[in-house]
Amino acid sequence: MNDAVLWLCLIHILICAVLGILMWRRVIRSGFRLFWIVALIPLWGLICLFLLERILRKKDRKGAEIGVEKLKMEDEIYRSILKEEGEREEGIVSFADATVINDAETRRELMMDILYSDASRYISLLKEARMDEDTEVVHYATTAMVELQKDYDQKLKEEEEAYEEDPENPDRMRSYIALLADYIGSGLLEGNMLLARRERYSELLGQYLSRFPDEKLFYQKKAYNDMALGRKKDVAECIRILLARWPEDEDGYLLQITYDAEEKNRAGIDHTLRMIRRNGVFLTSNGKNIVRYWAGEEWDEGVESAT
After folding, report:
1. What's the DSSP call for residue 245?
2. Under 8 Å CB-to-CB from 112, ≥6 apart: which residues?
C-alpha cells in the first residue's frame, strides 16, 4: 500500500513538473493560473486544467478564423489601392489585423511582414506593439523603429551635408527642411531628441524666411513648430507678419485662433472673429467650419465662403 502511494506521488510530481514546463513555454494557453490547483488537488485540478485548456483553444480557433477572414478582405482592399497608385507590394499585412488574431505565433509572423515591408507606414502601430505582452513582438517592433530612426538619421545627415556644401541653393534648403519636417511628424521622435529636431527645424525656417520673406506657407510652418516649442514671441511674430502681408487671407486669422485656443484665451478668439468679419475675409469651407465652431451657427449669415 505504501509503495502504491509513493508511486502515485512520484507520478503526480512528474506531471506537475511537465505541466510547469509547458506553462512556462506557453504551450498551455491558461498559463500558471491553475498550477497550484493542479499541484494541491491531484485529480480534480488536472481535470479543471483540461477543461479550461479546451475552452481557450476553442476560442483561439474561432478568433483565428474570424481574424483570417478579416485579413483576407482588408488585404484585398489594401492591395487594390497599392495597385492603383503603382506601388503594389506582395505580402504586406498591418499589425492592426494581427491584434484581431489571438495567436502569438501569427502576430509574430505579421510583425515580420511589417519589418520587411515599408514599416514607416505603421509607426503608430509599431509603438502600440512595443507594449504587447509577447516579448518577441516587442522585439520586432522595437527593431523596426530603431531601423527607421537610423534611416531617417542617415538621410538627414546626407541632406545637411548637401546643404552645407551649397547653403545658397534654395532647393537644397527646401529639401532639408522637408525631410526634417517629415521626421518630426513621423512619430518616431520623443523627448529631447524631438526637442532638438524641432529647434533645428525652427532655425532653418527662420533662415529660409530671411531670404524668401514672401513664402506664406513657411510662416505657418514656423508658427506651428514654435507653438510646440512654447516660443510665444516667435509665434506672435509669424502671425503679425501673416496678418500684415496677407490681411484678406484666412491663414493668419485661423492661426491666431489656434494659438489663442492653446493659450485658453477666449477674449483673443473673439477679437480675431471680429477682425475676420470686419475685414471681409474670404473663408474656405475648412476655415468656415473652424470659425463656426467658435462663433456659433449664426456666423453663416453674411459671411462669404469658398467651396
Report:
1. H
2. 140
d(C-alpha 197, C-alpha 186), whole Å: 12
User: Does the global pTM surpass 0.90?
Assistant: no
Which pLDDT does position 135 carry in this prediction? 76
Amino acid at 232: K
Judged by DSSP in three states, 132 sits in coil
C-alpha cell at 119: 514599416
Taking each helix axis from N to C end, the angle separating 285-295 and 266-279, rounded to the nearest 10 degrees, works out to 130
- DSSP letter (8 states) at residue 297: G
Q: Name the residue with cell 505580402.
A: 91
CB under 8 A, 24+ apart: contacts of 110-118: 111/136, 111/137, 111/140, 111/141, 111/144, 112/140, 114/140, 114/144, 115/140, 115/143, 115/144, 117/89, 117/91, 117/92, 118/89, 118/92
User: How many angstroms separate the CA atoms of 210 and 96, rounded?
Assistant: 45
For residue 201, the model assigns a pLDDT of 96
| b/e code 183-200 from CB counts within 10 Å (16+ = b) | bbeeebbeeeeeeebbeb
- What's the rounded Cα separation, in Å, for the pair 96 and 146? 20
Q: Kindly list the averaged pLDDT for each block of 10 residues, start to end, along the chain of length 307.
A: 65 68 61 59 64 62 45 45 41 49 59 59 68 70 81 92 91 94 89 94 95 94 95 96 94 94 93 92 90 76 45
Say how far apart CA 147 and CA 283 lie, in whole Å: 43
Rounded Cα gap, residues 240 and 254, in angstroms? 12
Q: Is 125 within 8 Å of 110 (Cβ atoms)? A: no
